[in-house]
Specification:
Number of strands: 7
Helix content: 10-25%
Order of helices and strands: HEEEEHEEEHH
Shape: globular
Number of helices: 4
Radius of gyration: 16 Å
Length: 158
């Protein structure tokens, strides 16, 4: 399935600036889940992924929000040590890979590609994306970091 999915998406080196993938039927997220995805639209130039869910909702996600909210293990909060990815304002999406019938792997241009974005995760993120973005910006400020590359707190060299 993964090999077939790769053929559906634009090659990273191709000239495609807009891409649409309609999934046959609503791809089920996981056993017992009612949320699926019927279409993915990658707007490369605008750095936006548009997702249409099986319940009829359509949500647009900026590449920056998807990157900083990545469900990968290195972004998961561990104890009280919260690592906030700084400098991701201009991150883009190079390509997408379907993973089974339940998720998509997003390949970002900062070479991050380890998170699997399940349909349930994306649906939840879409419902709370503004509060998640506010939390992200507040955490950056708290750590003296910035959304812009190399504008955060400089570490002193010793």
């Amino acid at each position: 399935m993964l090999q077939t999915a790769r053929l559906l998406f634009p090659r990273p080196w191709g000239p495609t600036q807009f891409f649409t993938c309609r999934l046959s039927g609503a791809a089920a997220s996981q056993a017992g889940s009612s949320i699926g995805v019927t279409a993915l639209h990658l707007h490369k130039k605008e750095k936006v992924l548009e997702v249409t869910f099986s319940d009829g909702l359509t949500r647009k996600f900026s590449a920056e929000l998807l990157r900083v909210c990545s469900p990968s293990a290195d972004n998961v909060i561990k104890g009280s040590n919260v690592k906030v990815p700084a400098g991701r304002r201009h991150v883009g999406i190079m390509s997408l890979e379907l993973v089974g019938n339940y998720a998509v792997r997003i390949n970002f241009d900062d070479l991050h590609n380890t998170g699997l974005y399940t349909w349930d995760f994306l649906h939840g993120l879409g419902q709370g994306k503004f509060s998640r973005a506010k939390q992200y910006i507040a955490a950056l400020r708290e750590q003296g970091a910035s959304r812009d590359p190399y504008k955060g707190k400089q570490q002193s060299r010793q």
